[in-house]
Model the fold of this input.
Amino acid sequence: MRRSLLARFLLARLGWAIPVILAILIVNFLIIHIVPGDPIQALIGDFPAPPGYADQIRHEFGLDQPVLTQLGLYLLNLAKGQLGFSFANRQPVLGLILQRAQFTLILMLPALALAASLGIVMALAAAPRAGSLYDSGLTALSLVGFSLPIFWLGQLLVIMFAIKLHLLPAQGMFSLRTRLTGWPYVLDVLWHLILPMFAVTIYYVAIVARVARASVLDALSQDFVLTAKAKGLSRRRVLWRHVLPNALIPVVTVIGYNFGYSLTGAILVETVFAWPGLGNLFITSIGNRDYPVLQGIFLLTAIAVVIANVATDLVYASLDPRVRSTGLRHA
Amino acid sequence: MAGFIPSLFDRSDRSSIPALAGVAAFLMFAPPSVLADETPRSGGTAIAVLGADPAVLNPDVSVGVPDIFTGCILYDALVRFGEDFKIEPGLAKSWEIAPDGLTYTFHLEKASFSDGKPVTSEDVRFTLLDVSSKYGAKFNTPGKAIKDVEAPDPQTVIIHLSKPFGPFLFSLACEQNAAILPAHIFRATDVLKNPATTTMPVGNGPFLLSEWVRGDHLSFVRNPNYWRAGKPYLDSLVIKIMPDSSARILALQAGEIDFIDEYYFPLSSYKLFSSDPRFDAHDVSYPSDDLIIFNTRNAPLDKPQVRQALLTALDRDYIHKNVFYDTGSIARSSIDTRIPWAYNPAVDYEKMYAYDPAKAAKLLDEAGVKPGADGVRFSVRLSFDTGRPEYTSFAQAIQRYWQAIGVKAVLEGAERPVVLKRVYADYDFDATLQNYTTSGDPALGISRIYTSESINKAATFNNASGYSNPEVDELFAKGRDAASQEERAKNYFKVQEILARDLPTLTIHQQAEIDVASAKLKGLWHGANYMWWDDTWLEP
Done:
């Protein structure tokens, strides 16, 4: 019974996702084409091209068709699993985006995981001592972390740790001067990961800590906490077993929401650290008016947001019995 | 045989013996410390940076900076540029030019492509006629001058021109879309879609592509069969892709990259590197000019007197010092002073149109462009690319100076593709800031700003002003076609006098093109703008 409820709940959510993604695709397609600028001129560059050359390329990429025909062709190809061909990169969009998405995940997954754990631990330590110096300090710090422009923080980190102290690399995902394989390569990537991951983590840890602190405070004032304390449970046990699961729901929302966006959300960090991810590809594709790549990134992001939302709902269900029984969110 | 550009011809015929003798003398008399520093050594990996991946790996079908930068590592051409645009031998070890300037005979080096096939005269013929002339925007004009290409034997190429073309030899360098491609790979294929164009080059240059991780880097390894014996010195060369200019600067400071090409180096960082002994900041003197192009279709910009007033109202010294960080120089004429044989010293905007707001206002009054009740005479929509680091402050400076004479500049900054469409396809602008490379020769880079034949909505970086003057057209054509440099110069001198009066486009500033390299990178500064990577070596 419970399993079939969950399955129905999942199906309903996924059923909604399809029209949402389709609408996103059409709106994005039209927005990209309405924005002024010509990909062919961006492609040809700074010199007068031979007569007919621009028209030839325009035809080659189907850009001489009316916008609605282009949209129809795009959706038709999409139904066949083809995301199109990148003008600027001269290769199929799907492979390009998937390769770059991997690099973004290498950066964002550990950063989000670290930010979530740190944020929760900090909130659990601060909330029971609300109003204390530690708590005020944490609130102030998370405000600072949230407000720091991430590209500025990134540059400061590079100046400090790469240029002044020569401790960590300034950019990139791996060393280019000496090429490594096997474990040394993995360690090299981790070595390059530290600074950009730190920059991303600071931002997300600030968000998670603020939300988690508020929800822990809220949970602490509930009757069941009083009951648990009255039963004589230790302070630690009350916090970890009773307060935490209840306080986690808003935190899961924040993490789930940000995970969906993390695919492109790292644009600034990827730019500052020359990390070869999706955010970097996004920026260069805007400059090149590389429509198929932009469309592909929007599609991937839309799917990621939808999946992250469904996953968030599943985590709710496992955290909160009320969600399991009614399929409704309470947070 | 001597014909034009005699100094170039002399170089083509030089033997390697005097050069060797020079090296021997140097070895005998140089102090040991200098020897330790300056003897090239093999090995090592150099890392250069570009702002974007190349779109193609074929330098003959594109003019994008990353495409040519990368393509000319993979391919050689018949000739290449040395310091000050001197033509040096490339795949052609020597050449003869007929006295009428119509026949060029080239003798080829024994070289091969990376698939082992030899580079022959047939490859040259195929490249110039079937690829460069058809797909190479820079080779478009020289391509039109070619009547026929003969390949009498595998090592000899004879090019017949239908009319003399002054900068023809110059047009045969790699960066002019004339790298020699393998005919056996490209023949009877779609050149733009051929894998050798898109991903798998079959080159004859000093390095071979070994890896391409898009958005991150391209790796090249030494070509073991390279035709220049003992070269290249580097074991490998990496091009790192970094779209953000501050990130590039930081990486260079951290020692993680060794070289930033001028196109990707912000002038605002020049002082930082020029004063630091760990770096060489070098003006490559590949002349390009910062221009204000007027749309002369729109009143009152159709009046030469109004355009003269707008130039007189600008303090170019302020712009040079504050917008361009004291790099490059103030422009004096429509032809860059760094092309000394073609620049007419009698034309000097600094004297003819010295900064004088009162005089500028008077000129406008005389032209009948009087201020309205609000003090504004007319407004100018100024279109510029906000992606060029200096252009926003350039536009703001212009706005301030023009305001002083009652001309309201409305700043229309936008991204590059938007500006290109507005200016070149839609003519939807009053004035625009642009940077045009001169390509070192008025026939290649400057005539396109002014001639009637380059008014063409289907292309970019041409005559967007709409200015059309048959006399100017004729002088530029004669300047291009005359058989000697002196004859060419006479026509260019005359055209500068006319343009200094008509001013359809204001040449404001002569841009410095600054490459910055780690001081450990040696032997790099041979080329004008594009590097001779085979000569480059790393100090340990």
